[in-house]
């Protein structure tokens, strides 16, 4: 099994559709990174991921608007095709299983969990500034007080 995890901003407002009696929320996420090339010139690269969240939980849809920062995890799908110019191209897609709003572009609760629409246990994405906590069972004898 291959699992894909992404953190990025929505490129446009989501679209909710009903397909064969099931709801799907479609949205696109962009992850931008800045780097310097071998000559020291500042460059920026953007990677787009088209996402489909098949769920009856469409209550999150009003919050999936352009610029919103999200964390999503799911299964990748890649499609190869010929573009308008006749050149080979590819699209990266993800079938979303879990999604979380992270805040960000809207300015409210930067980096904090604003909601969870996951299909299963809640998952909090680790951030670069805070390492993932490691928890172990604590016996009463181990407590410092």
Write up this protein.
By secondary structure, the protein is an all-beta fold. It has a single domain (4-120), classed as OB fold (Dihydrolipoamide Acetyltransferase, E2P), CATH 2.40.50. The chain contains no helices and seven strands. The protein has strands spanning 4-10, 15-19, 22-36, 42-54, 68-82, 88-104, 115-116. A five-stranded mixed β-barrel has the order 1-3-4-6-5. The radius of gyration is 19 Å and the shape is globular. The termini are far apart. The model is unreliable at 107-138 (pLDDT under 50).
State the strand order across the main sheet: 1-3-4-6-5
Radius of gyration based on Cα positions: 19 Å
Q: What proportion strand?
A: over 45%
Would you report the number of β strands?
A: 7
Termini separation: 45 Å
Q: Kindly provide the name of the CATH class.
A: Mainly Beta
CATH topology, by name, is OB fold (Dihydrolipoamide Acetyltransferase, E2P)
Largest sheet: 5 strands, mixed, barrel
CATH architecture verdict: Beta Barrel
Q: Return the domain count.
A: 1
Low-pLDDT segments, ≥5 res: 107-138
CATH superfamily: Nucleic acid-binding proteins
From N to C, what is the helix and strand string? EEEEEEE
Structural class by SSE content: mainly beta
Shape: globular
Helix content: under 10%
Mean pLDDT: 77
Number of helices: 0
